């Protein structure tokens, strides 16, 4: 728990738990469906494992999260109290989309972008069988430059190394442009026309690829004029 505000106000009492650095983002990842420690780490790539472990312990102690262990398989699952935070997270995301739209270069993270995108693939819209989409960010650091999504009818895997399967479509993108597409600030067609995103592959797959992704849950939030 954070430092006490020493107020009886329920907002103050809630914030004693939730306003510590990273805590609400851990809840965001749990709300989004991450349950295992490594999944949470991939959604919070700049959070240290030690701090993540500490925050999870705090949330368990507060009754927001339940730690479920089955042999070596450990999952962190939101309790009823934790599930009540979903509309709080969604409201904050909508507010942030609407009123805090400016992104600095330090906010752009290909690892986080691909992790978020892999959770929002419309597998029914993707060709049958295994489909591999490669993403290349030429301006990124070498270790973050190439990523692959391996899409099957059962699952979507994200890889930071070549999975060894034929690539259906190569997406070459300026990282900022693809983040803007993902957030709903820029349409696929506008990004393609401006050259911020380029698709390479068979014409039919290039045309259909934007429909393979449902975009960020906040992409449809109305922006101020």
Short description:
39% of the residues lie in helices and 16% in strands. The chain is α+β, with helices and mostly antiparallel strands and 225 residues long. The model has no long low-confidence stretch (mean pLDDT 95).
Cα radius of gyration in angstroms: 19 Å
Q: Give the strand line-up of the largest sheet.
A: 5-4-3-6-7
Strand-residue proportion: 15-25%
Taken from the alpha-carbon principal axes, the silhouette is globular
Q: Which structural category fits the helices and strands?
A: alpha+beta
Helix content: 25-40%
String of helices and strands: HHHHEEHHHEEEEHHEH
Model description:
By secondary structure, this protein is of the alpha+beta class. Helices cover 39% and strands 16% of the residues. The protein is built from ten helices and seven strands. It has helices at residues 10-18, 23-31, 37-43, 49-61, 80-83, 86-99, 110-118, 175-183, 188-194, 203-208, and strands spanning 65-70, 73-78, 131-136, 146-151, 156-159, 169-173, 197-200. It has a five-stranded mixed sheet. A hairpin with a 2-residue loop joins strand 1 and strand 2 (73-78). The longest helix has 14 residues, at 86-99. The radius of gyration is 19 Å and the shape is globular. It starts with 9 loop residues before the first helix and ends in a 17-residue tail after the last helix. The model has no long low-confidence stretch (mean pLDDT 95).
Produce the secondary structure layout.
Layout lengths: L9 H9 L4 H9 L5 H7 L5 H13 L3 E6 L2 E6 L1 H4 L2 H14 L10 H9 L12 E6 L9 E6 L4 E4 L9 E5 L1 H9 L4 H7 L2 E4 L2 H6 L17
Parallel strand pairs: 3-6
Antiparallel strand pairs: 1-2, 3-4, 4-5, 6-7
């Amino acid at each position: 728990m954070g430092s006490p505000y020493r107020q009886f106000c329920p907002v103050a009492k809630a914030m004693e738990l939730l306003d510590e650095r990273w805590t609400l983002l851990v809840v965001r990842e749990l709300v989004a469906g991450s349950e295992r420690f490594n999944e949470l780490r991939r959604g919070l790539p700049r959070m240290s494992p030690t701090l993540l472990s500490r925050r999870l312990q705090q949330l368990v102690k507060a009754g927001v999260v339940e730690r479920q262990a089955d042999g070596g398989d450990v999952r962190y699952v939101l309790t009823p109290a934790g599930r009540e935070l979903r509309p709080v997270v969604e409201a904050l995301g909508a507010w942030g989309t609407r009123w805090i739209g400016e992104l600095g270069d330090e906010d752009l993270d290909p690892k986080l972008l691909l992790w978020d995108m892999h959770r929002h693939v419309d597998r029914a819209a993707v060709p049958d069988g295994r489909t591999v989409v490669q993403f290349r960010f030429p301006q990124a650091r070498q270790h973050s430059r190439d990523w692959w999504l391996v899409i099957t009818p059962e699952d979507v895997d994200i890889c930071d190394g070549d999975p060894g399967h034929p690539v259906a479509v190569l997406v070459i993108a300026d990282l900022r442009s693809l983040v803007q597409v993902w957030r709903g600030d820029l349409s696929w067609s506008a990004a393609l026309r401006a050259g911020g995103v380029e698709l390479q592959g068979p014409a039919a797959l290039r045309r259909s690829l934007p429909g393979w992704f449902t975009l960020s849950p906040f992409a449809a939030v109305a922006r101020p004029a």
